[in-house]
Amino acid sequence: MPQPPYFKPHKPRMTRRAFFCDYRAPGFFMITITTAAGTPPLGRLTTESGSHLVILSPLGELIRKHIENFTAAAPEIHIPTYVIMQYHIHMLLHVRQHLPRHLGKIIGAFKGHISSEYAACGGYTTVTPLFAPKFHDRIVTKKRTTGDLCPLHRR
């Protein structure tokens, strides 16, 4: 059956990238990375002391370590704030200078290093990806927006 003239094939949300954005250029990006099915929780939510907190699991602590050491692998990128939730991670990335490769390749390497290290810690000989393919990004175009995100910081 022929498709109507307005039909566009569905493109999964986490693979869409803004056609107008150079993902190597300086700027701010809000990144969300989700865990793959079967990945243990990155932490647990608690309401100790009357406020909501996420107590990180060993995997969550490993991710925190990689986030805080991110600039060792990609010195052009600074992470001013991030939040590790039970099944996903939010990071505000500040690309300070032109990147040698696409931001997606850098995020992919970040996810791969965490999966490899977690497998090695568990004594596994094969690496199972801990994260869902791709990631969601939001290009931060207004300075006010970055200020709104900074209270999310959890260290």
Describe this structure in words.
Helix 1 (58-68) crosses helix 3 (103-121). With 155 residues, the protein is α+β, with helices and mostly antiparallel strands. The protein has a single domain, classed as Transposase IS200-like (Alpha-Beta Plaits, 2-Layer Sandwich), CATH 3.30.70.1290. The protein has helices spanning 58-68, 70-73, 103-121, 143-149, and strands at residues 27-34, 43-46, 53-56, 77-84, 88-95, 136-140. The chain is globular and about 55 Å long. It has a four-stranded antiparallel β-sheet with strand order 4-5-1-6. It has four helices and six strands.
Short structural description:
The protein is of the alpha+beta class and 155 residues long. It is 26% helix and 24% strand. The chain has a single domain (23-145), classed as 2-Layer Sandwich (Alpha-Beta Plaits).
